[in-house]
Amino acid sequence: MYVFFCPREAYAYLDPGTGSYIFQLLIAGLLGGLLAVKIFWASIKKFFLNLFSGKKTDDHSPEL
Predict the structure, then answer these.
(1) Domains of the chain: which residue ranges?
(2) Residue 53 reports pLDDT greater than 80
């Protein structure tokens, strides 16, 4: 089983386009994550403020 996953010699070639494609995927993932944080920043900020604040809030209680 080990022979199939770790061959001694690999006659493989990665052209420069492959490295460029991987680099583009990493940059796109990073920028997409930053965009998601920007879009949902108010929700993220509210979550952490409620998490670290001392008072407990009950969003499901009816207000009179």
Answers:
(1) 19-51
(2) yes
